[in-house]
Structure formats: structure tokens, C-alpha cells
Automatic annotation (TrEMBL):
It comes from the Bacteria. Residues 353-585 form the ABC transporter domain. InterPro entries: AAA+_ATPase, ABC_AA/LPS_Transport, ABC_transp_permease, ABC_transporter-like_ATP-bd, BCA_ABC_TP_C, LivM-like, P-loop_NTPase. It comes from Humitalea rosea. This is Amino acid/amide ABC transporter membrane protein 2 (HAAT family) /amino acid/amide ABC transporter ATP-binding protein 1 (HAAT family).
Length: 593
């Protein structure tokens, strides 16, 4: 569980229990059978919305095809009952298993696609299943009437019993979502949504996490579909695999709020009664009024609250509660000093990283061309070079973001080239990226925790490692501050802390000082010096020469993908080749004064 999760879960659990009891009390007094059915449908669609949210909301990959899992669940229950006489009490859990298994089969090929292509591919699955159901002659599967033993066959004469069961299913789906969102599961998924590459570089096995999320989501949708079949007593492709079903899952979550378990609940509680009431009152005059309601809801929410009702209300509330523009006071004096830096690194003399003949081309462009260098343990190697010289590509080839064409890189004698990004991270290579990505609404601690989870540390140790990393970067006073209120310097340090939380032996820092003022640069440099004093080995790409001269033990100059020079910073910056290729005439003039 994430820090602070237990009291939060308790609080939210009590609110949820209160809401569900109130809902049951209302449904107990409704006598009209149409509205009784509507009260049963609200929790069912909320469960489908929650299932969509567990995958698309947390991972950020839009699914237009959740009807596939829902429909499979509905057909599983209906066919098991009609063909094998199997009670829905067993059929519904089996529907969840079928939904999860379908998610595995769908995920395997579809995770190769990204963005819009993924969303469109998901659309194809329920369509395919719908045609298959028609082809197999399952155009209309009616559940046999077994009113003699209502409990055994889940066929009750009093529709309010279905509402109670639907609320029970919703409570279960909410409990699952709450645990997911407040655990390493949810945080890992959110990290993937924020930046897949950075998440993998932090040690997360992105494909595995996505698959787990889709399977859980498929299972929840399958159970919802299975129960839906028991409520309607008839299953048709249009009703359970149709476009409106997928749209309903998506719309209730988008309307209520994406990436939070409250979202689908709010969305279903507002949209389902609205569309069903309009359907009841105006359905004969305007057929398909539900589609109009969902379309209008999407347009309205996109215009007025793009992240959904929940976030819009919560953010407004938070702004009123804390009217200051930033939760972080501005005075720099308040920033506690990072660990005191020793003037010189502990020279271990031992080589930690040995790179030989590393090459990477993009078509005809040799972005990294036969690069060799080594890094002494406990030292800082600065990498400089003109824009487009191949510095970032070299980092990418080193830590597995891109496959290297040739070459080797041994860390402590162990080859890292050819391994996956998350494996290299787990071997002790931490990395930051040029563009910082944070989870703005989550506290700094949670943002940093991702690095510790990625390294595979168990829950308690992960929190300890994250707190240690926060202390080492001098951000202790901001531990509970939301990342959205941090300054550029604090965000840079937060990213550094995230890399440190995985307890790396080697840090790859890509332009950590980019966009910072002189004072801010100094503060970050102090942190880096502190880390070196602790024995951390760092390779840093940086354009700010004054910073490089102050911090680097050695400089490596790259130009057109090749090593132009390597050595002590003072010697390197006086090298004519380096001056001509990178530093320029102004630098030469300054040097010759
Ligand atoms: N994925 C890619 N596909 C094709 N070409 C690429 C790709 N990534 C980088 N390049 C090219 O490779 C060369 C090296 O780029 P790289 O980003 O590594 O340079 P850099 O030294 O890090 O530059 P900067 O200092 O501007 O970040 C550039 O010409 C760039 O356009």
C-alpha cells in the first residue's frame, strides 16, 4: 500500500458505505418496475465504467471495445445456464474468468499498437464477436425461467433483490478499484500513463503491468455482463456487444472523472437515470435518445471539465481551501541544505562502466559511431557536444531505450547492452530525462515512490528508499506537497530523487540543469556533489559549461556521433578541436585572455 493509504481507504470506504445504504433505501421505496430496473442498471454500468477506468483511466490507453468483455460475460452466464444448467452464482465468477482470459488474448497482439491505433483496434473485438455470435446462431439467448427456486437460479420476482445484488457487485468493484488505486499497482499504472519510457527506465515492466490491468479490467467487465444477463433474462449481440455498451463504459468514466474510482460512480449515477428517464418519457418520439444523451454529455464535459466532474469539483475545492498560487513558499532560504558536499570525490580508481565500440544508426545517419569510454566508480563524467551530436542517443542505447547496433557496455563486468530497459534499471542504472514528467496531483513522496517500486523493493522498504532519496536531494520539507506546485528546480530534484529511490549504482542524467537559473543550478550542483561524496557514479549530459567545469571529474566531448576528446575538464576545454566544434570563438577569446 502507498503511504497514507490505510486512513484514506477507511475514510472513502465509510463514505461509500453511506452512499450505498442511502441508494438501497431509495430503491426500497420505488414501486414503478421501469425505475426499479433503472436502479439496478446504475450499479451495473458503474461497474463497467470502473472496469474501463482500471485499464484506460490508470494506464491511459483508450479502449473503445470494453463491450467485448461485457458481452463475453453475458453470453458465458446465459450459455452455461441454458446448456449446462449451471447456476449464475457459479456462472458470474466464470464470466469474470472468461473476461480476464479474453483480455489476455486481446492484449497480447494489441499492446503492440499505441495511441489511436490501440483504441481503434479495441473497437474491432466486440464487432468481431457480435458477428461470430450471429454466425453461431446466438442472436437471442433467453435464460430459461426457474422461478420455483429463485435463490438457486438468481431469478427473483421482486426486482429490488436485483438492485441489492447489483449494489453488492458495485461494492466489490469499488473495493478492488480502491485497493488498486492506493497500491503499487495503481501507482505503477499511473507512472506508465504519465510517461511510458520514464516508467520503464524506473524499472517497471510496462507490458506486464498493462496486461495485469487489462485482465483485471476484463474480469470486472465480464462479471458485470454476466449479472446483466441475469437481470434482462435475454442476451442479444446488440444489447451486450453493441457500440452503445462500449460507449457507456467510456462515457460514465469520462463524465464522472478519469483515473479515480469516484468517477464512474458519479458518471453512472447522473447519466444512466437521465438517459433512462428520457428514454421512458420521450423514447417513442425520439428513438435512440440515449445515444443523444451520451453524445451531449461528452461534448459538455470536454468543453467544461475535460478531466471529468470529480476532478473539476476537487480542484475548485482545493483552490478555495488553499488560495495561495503555490503550496510551496517561495523563499529560497527555507530550502534545507542538501547533504554537505566534500570538496573532492573519493577516488576509488575502480572502473564501474566500460563502454566499447558503441554504435547506433537511424537509417543512413550514424547518431552514435564507435564510441568508447570508461567511468571510474564514484566520479562524475560530463558529456558535452553540439545539438544533435548523439549524446541522448548514446544514453538511450546504453540503458536499453533503443537497441544498440554494435558495441558493448559492461557495468562491474556485467554486460548491459541487449537487455531490456527495466532490467538495466534493476541492475543499478538510474536515469532522468530531458523533460520532467510528474503526477501533479500526487504528493512528492508518491512521485518518488515509483522509482523504488520499479526497482522491485517491497512496500515498506520502498517507502524508506523514497524518503531517503527525498532527503538526499534536499526536498524533505516538500515530501507531502503535490508535485503540481513544485518549481522547475524542485521538479528536477524530484526526478533525481525518483532515480535515486531505485538505489542505483550509476546515474545517467540528461540535461538536469536545463532551464534553471544560476542559483537554481548551484542548488542542484550541490546535491550532485553531495551524491558524489557518498560514492555515487554519475554521467551527466549538460550544455552549461560553467556547471560542467565545477562538477565533472572528466569530460567526454561527442561530435557527429564520435568521441572528439576525453580527459580532465580544464584540458578538454582548451583543446582546439573542442573549441572549434563546440565551444566557439568567444570561448577561445575568453581562454586566451
Ligand atoms: N528516433 C530517431 N530517429 C531518427 N533520428 C534520430 C532519432 N533520435 C535521434 N535522431 C537523430 O540522431 C542525431 C542525434 O540526436 P541526439 O538527440 O542523440 O543528439 P543530442 O546530442 O542529444 O542533441 P541535443 O543536445 O539537442 O539533445 C540527430 O541528428 C537526431 O536528429
Amino acid at each position: 500500500m502507498r503511504p497514507g493509504a490505510t486512513p484514506r481507504l477507511r475514510r472513502h470506504g465509510m463514505i461509500l458505505a453511506g452512499l450505498l445504504v442511502a441508494y438501497l433505501a431509495i430503491s426500497a421505496v420505488v414501486t414503478n418496475s421501469y425505475y426499479q430496473l433503472m436502479l439496478t442498471l446504475v450499479p451495473i454500468w458503474a461497474v463497467l465504467g470502473l472496469s474501463w477506468n482500471v485499464f484506460s483511466g490508470y494506464v491511459g490507453l483508450t479502449s473503445f471495445g470494453h463491450a467485448a468483455f461485457f458481452g463475453l460475460g453475458a453470453y458465458t452466464v446465459a450459455l452455461l445456464l441454458t446448456m449446462l444448467n449451471l447456476t449464475p452464482w457459479i456462472g458470474i465468477p466464470l464470466a469474470a474468468v472468461v473476461g480476464a482470459a479474453a483480455a489476455l488474448l486481446i492484449g497480447l497482439p494489441t499492446f503492440r499498437l499505441r495511441g489511436h491505433y490501440f483504441a481503434l483496434a479495441m473497437l474491432a473485438y466486440p464487432l468481431l464477436m457480435s458477428y461470430l455470435a450471429q454466425y453461431l446462431g446466438y442472436n437471442e439467448v433467453s435464460l430459461p425461467m426457474r422461478r420455483d427456486e429463485p435463490v438457486t437460479w438468481m431469478q427473483f420476482t421482486d426486482p429490488r433483490v436485483y438492485t441489492v445484488l447489483a449494489v453488492g457487485l458495485l461494492a466489490l468493484a469499488m473495493a478492488i478499484s480502491m485497493v488498486v488505486e492506493n497500491s503499487r499497482f495503481g501507482l505503477s499504472l499511473m507512472a506508465i500513463r504519465q510517461n511510458e519510457l520514464a516508467a520503464e527506465a524506473a524499472g517497471l515492466n510496462v507490458r506486464q503491468w498493462k496486461m495485469r490491468a487489462l485482465m483485471l479490467s476484463g474480469g470486472m467487465a465480464g462479471a458485470a455482463g454476466g449479472f446483466y444477463a441475469c437481470v434482462l433474462l435475454v442476451v442479444t449481440p446488440e444489447a451486450v456487444l453493441g457500440m452503445l455498451v462500449s460507449a457507456q463504459a467510456l462515457v460514465v468514466a469520462l463524465f464522472g472523472g478519469v483515473g479515480t474510482y469516484w468517477g464512474p460512480l458519479i458518471g453512472a449515477a447522473i447519466l444512466i437515470p437521465l438517459s433512462e428517464t428520457l428514454h421512458a418519457e420521450l423514447g417513442e418520439i425520439i428513438p435512440g435518445i440515449q445515444g443523444v444523451v451520451y453524445g451531449a454529455a461528452i461534448i459538455l464535459i470536454m468543453l467544461l471539465a475535460p478531466e471529468g466532474l470529480y476532478w473539476s469539483i476537487r480542484d475548485r475545492w482545493a483552490r478555495q481551501a488553499a488560495p495561495r498560487p503555490s503550496p510551496v513558499p517561495e523563499a529560497p532560504a527555507r530550502v534545507p541544505a542538501a547533504p554537505a558536499a566534500r570538496p573532492s570525490p573519493p577516488p576509488s580508481g575502480k572502473t564501474l562502466l566500460e563502454v566499447r565500440g558503441l554504435s547506433k544508426s537511424f537509417g543512413g545517419l550514424r547518431a552514435v559511431d564507435d564510441v568508447s569510454f570508461s567511468v571510474v566508480q564514484g566520479s562524475i563524467l560530463g558529456i558535452i557536444g553540439p545539438n544533435g551530436a548523439g549524446k541522448t542517443t548514446m544514453f538511450n542505447a546504453l540503458n536499453g531505450v533503443l537497441p544498440a547496433d554494435r558495441g558493448e557496455a559492461r557495468m562491474d563486468g556485467e554486460e548491459i547492452i541487449g537487455r531490456k530497459l527495466f532490467e538495466i534499471c534493476r541492475m543499478g542504472v538510474g536515469r532522468t530525462f530531458q523533460v520532467v514528467r510528474s503526477f501533479p496531483r500526487l504528493p512528492l513522496l508518491d512521485n518518488v515512490l515509483v522509482g523504488a517500486y520499479g526497482a522491485g523493493l517491497p512496500d515498506e522498504e520502498a517507502v524508506t528508499a523514497a524518503r531517503e532519496a527525498i532527503t538526499r536531494t534536499g526536498l524533505t520539507h516538500l515530501t507531502d506537497a503535490p508535485a503540481g506546485g513544485l518549481t522547475s528546480k524542485e521538479l528536477r530534484l524530484m526526478e533525481l530523487a525518483r532515480a535515486l529511490a531505485g538505489r542505483p549504482r550509476l546515474l545517467l542524467l540528461d540535461e538536469t540543469l536545463a532551464g534553471l537559473g544560476r542559483d537554481e543550478c548551484d542548488a542542484v550542483l550541490d546535491v550532485l556533489k553531495g551524491l558524489r561524496a557518498e560514492g555515487m557514479t554519475t554521467i551527466i549530459i549538460e550544455h552549461t559549461m560553467h556547471a560542467m567545469l565545477r562538477i565533472a571529474d572528466e569530460l567526454l566531448v561527442i561530435d557527429h556521433g564520435r568521441v572528439l576528446a576525453q580527459g580532465h575538464p580544464r584540458e578538454v576545454v582548451e583543446d582546439r578541436k573542442v573549441i572549434e566544434a563546440y565551444l566557439g570563438r568567444k570561448w577561445l577569446a575568453r581562454c586566451s585572455k
